[in-house]
Amino acid sequence: MDITGNKATAYGLIAAAEKAGLELYLGSYPITPATDILHELAKHKSLGVKTVQCEDEIAGCASAIGAAFAGALAATSTSGPGICLKSEAINLAVIDEIPLVIIDVQRGGPSTGLPTKSEQTDLLQALYGRNGESPMPVIAAVSPTDCFAAAYTACKIALEYLTPVILLTDGFLGNGSAAWRLPDINALPPIQPHFATEAMKHHYTPYLRDPDTLARYWAIPGSEGYEHILGGLEKDGETGAISTDPNNHDNMVHLRAAKVAGIKVPDVEVLGDKEQADLLIVGFGSTFGHLYSAMQQLRKAGKKIALAQFKYINPLPANTERVLKKYKKVVVAEQNLGQFAFYLRGKINLFAPYQYNEIKGQPFVVEELVQAFTKILTQ
After folding, report:
1. Closest CA to 307 of 318, 324, 352, 317
2. Which of 76, 137, 143, 189 has the fewest CB atoms inside 10 Å of its own CB, making it the most exposed?
């Protein structure tokens, strides 16, 4: 079928709920260019989907947190200005370690900016736009059809690690379309929510952790023997009671960070002349098609070029440093002033890439990319 990125995102959420054996809840507020996700999900009550068009962005996120606490696969959809408004509620999900999927269909900013245009300018907001140490997984879809897989994966991570997850798409992907083969739901990866076990009954506290993943165990309110309280104040890691103990807070901050850092994501794939490229092009998210086309044009002209397009932003793939340091020249191309390049420099010691930055609210122009990358090759 022909499918848009927003519809593919909606379908990915529905498929994840089906595989997890949970009902899907979306708390949202209309905002360009994300509203189609709410519209699409509202059509599927027959699949157990619940949607609420809330009175504002804050309520959309807060209601989704309540739904997650109550045992649903919960999501909230918005664009950049809505992420600003939702940030306090997202922080509550971080400290409570609630499985919540936050979808940011990015548009031009700041403020109301260019509501109908597309940018990649929310990356640092997604990574760091909250108070305190509040790490969250961040995934960036790379095509309209990939929005399905990216949404599905975001749900899988949220439910299996008990963490809020941000999915970055943008106006170009959300409104763009492509031919999509309907997946066999039986072939999709399993999703196993990290529920409290029967052995924990009458011994459950909310921050008991799986020693392998550091994920806490999810107990549904109203279940006898699993009574507990979550909230915005720091809790004791052993008892779940409110705690201001400095050593406990230090430990809990480290545990939340280590849990996110330890999430297993696939290696980033290198395309093109991956063994002997003179230039590695690096991008993330929706710029994939244009960067790939530029790489192919340069290769046809006899240049040795490779491309690494990142879908997993936090945590980064395990092979990231090895890939980025393998090539003599690396250029990070993105539709912002260099947020991904800045992030990679902070994560990879002694990494100093070239940058190609454009913020026009429009997709890259392949010929302009070819000219810019050719100039880098001659420097």
Report:
1. 324
2. 189
Contact (Cβ atoms closer than 8 angstroms) between residue 254 and residue 304: no
Tens digits of residue pLDDT in 313-344 = 999 999 999 999 999 999 999 999 999 999 99
Asked if 284 and 311 count as a contact pair (C-beta separation under 8 A), the reply is yes
DSSP state of 108: B
Residue with tokens 């395990």, as numbered in its chain? 318
> What is the DSSP track for 4-67?
EHHHHHHHHHHHHHHHHT--EEEEE---TTTHHHHHHHTT-GGGTEEEEE-SSHHHHHHHHHHH
Burial of 126 (0-12, 13-18, 19+ CB in 10 A): buried
Burial of residue 372, with CB atoms counted within 10 A of its CB: 0-12 exposed, 13-18 middle, 19 or more buried: middle
Between CA 249 and CA 231 the distance in angstroms is 15
Q: How many Å apart are CA 360 and CA 362, to the nearest integer? A: 5
Separation of alpha carbons 174 and 8, rounded Å: 9
What is the pLDDT at residue 346?
97
Query: Would the CA dihedral through 138, 250, 351, 357 be positive or negative?
Result: positive
Spatial CB neighbours of 198, under 8 Å, sequence gap ≥ 6: none
Q: Which two tokens stand for residue 57?
A: 């962005």
Q: What is the pLDDT of residue 215?
A: 98
Q: Which of 94, 95, 96, 120 is nearest to 107 (CA)?
A: 120
Q: What span, in angstroms and rounded, lies between the C-alpha atoms of 273 and 254?
A: 40
Quick one: tokens of 2?
Answer: 């022909």
Residue 116, SS3 per DSSP: coil
Q: Looking up tokens 């994560």, which residue turns up?
A: 347
- pLDDT score, position 294: 98
